[in-house]
Design brief:
alpha+beta; two-stranded antiparallel sheet; 15 helices; 52% helix
Length: 409
């Protein structure tokens, strides 16, 4: 009976369905954008060079989870080759690469600038799927450089500050592990970008062997672990801890999100925005549909009075109004989920380019990643909203007196 009643005033029913569908579609699109932003930012952080896990001496992580914050500490991880091989043998580990963080001064011609150095093993970075954005020149080769064959990649801002281009020779000066200063000539292999303007102004990337020669040590700062799936990070860390505890030097493993705290801040911001938009959609749909349902109820007062007169209880009459709204919510929610999914496919096909975020270099493509759970959540949300919107009209119907309802004009 409730479903058949919806066909009595098709224009009003269609209006309610459109409001519910657009509300559901808005939620699907917002959820798709938030999900894409979360997943895209997560993979950009991991694949941008951070890796899934970082293994280093436990004392190095005290008060400085970020590897760049530890760039002033001398490399302290000795015997790292055997540990690297043991970790690489574990399941779901793609590769493990050594890394050194260091600081110093770079000079070219009459220009000098401070740099933040990151030394890596390029072959293992590629096996982990870590990407380097080359602006000009070439990436570092896989093979370790020989004497007087050292190469470096410069951040775009650092290259501009030094006036250096690929092929130029620059001088690196850095403190050794013994506290003295050492200098080394390197050839600029290429110009890169991290995606962040401030970091590009100081970033220098080179081979682990080059950094070890410059710093006068065979140690490394840490080991970067790349997994085949980011969702396995916590499990991989838990399985790795017993191995790390067997080391003579106390070691610890830190997950990527701990080393990139801004990810949690961005996630909290987006969750707050999504909750705020959801609240607005909730109020708009409740107010608009509640008014429409109330108008429908007021036009059918004599009908409800007749139902009460032939023995229908107050609860049954009120349930009829609620069921009509729930049917509207179900159909509107299904329509909204379908509309949202279709719009998401269309937006992804158009490939809209958005301006770079504050402090970033590259533009961001507007894309939506809609999961089946988002469609189900939007459907449930709209059903609940329509159910809430029907409460006040249902209460009003339940309070009608039979004789007043029959006499209503």
């Amino acid at each position: 009976m409730a479903l058949r009643n919806l066909g009595r005033n098709r224009r009003r029913t269609l209006l309610c369905l459109l409001v519910a569908a657009w509300g559901g579609a808005a939620l699907v699109l917002t959820a798709g954008f938030v999900r894409f932003s979360f997943d895209g930012l997560r993979e950009a952080i991991v694949r941008g060079g951070l890796g899934h896990l970082e293994v280093a001496p436990a004392g190095d992580f005290s008060g400085a989870a970020s590897s760049l914050e530890r760039s002033a500490l001398p490399p302290a991880l000795a015997g790292w080759q055997s540990l690297r091989n043991e970790i690489e043998a574990r399941p779901h580990v793609q590769a493990v690469g050594a890394a050194i963080q260091f600081t110093g001064m770079a000079s070219h011609a009459d220009r000098s600038a401070a740099f933040l150095g990151v030394a890596v093993e390029p072959d293992r970075e590629r096996r982990m799927g870590l990407k380097v954005k080359i602006r000009s020149g070439e990436d570092l080769p896989d093979a370790a450089p020989g004497e007087d064959e050292d190469l470096a990649l410069l951040g775009a801002g650092l290259a501009r500050a030094l006036g250096a281009v690929p092929g130029d020779r620059i001088v690196l000066v850095a403190p050794t592990v013994e506290g003295s200063l050492d200098a080394m000539d390197v050839t600029v292999r290429g110009v890169i970008t991290s995606g962040l303007l401030e970091l590009d102004a100081r970033l220098l990337k080179t081979h682990v062997m080059t950094a070890q020669r410059l710093l006068g040590t065979g140690n490394v700062s840490s080991l970067i672990v790349g997994l085949d799936d980011t969702d396995r990070t916590a499990a991989a860390k838990a399985g790795m801890l017993p191995l790390l505890r067997q080391s003579p030097l106390p070691l610890d493993a830190v997950e990527w999100d701990t080393r990139a705290p801004f990810y949690g801040q961005v996630r909290s911001l987006y969750v707050g925005i999504f909750a705020f938009l959801g609240g607005i959609v909730f109020l708009l749909v409740v107010l608009s549909t509640s008014n429409t349902i109330l108008m429908s109820v007021m036009e059918r007062v004599r009908e409800f009075g007749t139902l009460r007169a032939i023995g229908t209880s107050r609860l049954q009459v009120a349930s009829l109004v609620v069921l009509e709204s729930l049917w509207l919510g179900l159909m509107g929610g299904l329509g909204g989920a379908a509309l949202g999914a279709g719009l998401a496919v269309l937006i992804n096909h158009v490939r809209i380019q958005m301006p770079p975020p504050p402090g970033a270099v590259d533009p961001m493509e507007l894309a939506l990643r809609v999961a089946p759970s988002d469609l189900l959540a939007a459907l449930v949300f709209i059903i609940v909203v329509l159910g809430v919107a029907s409460l006040m009209p249902a209460v009003r119907v339940a309070r009608l007196r039979v004789w007043e309802a029959l006499a209503h004009d």
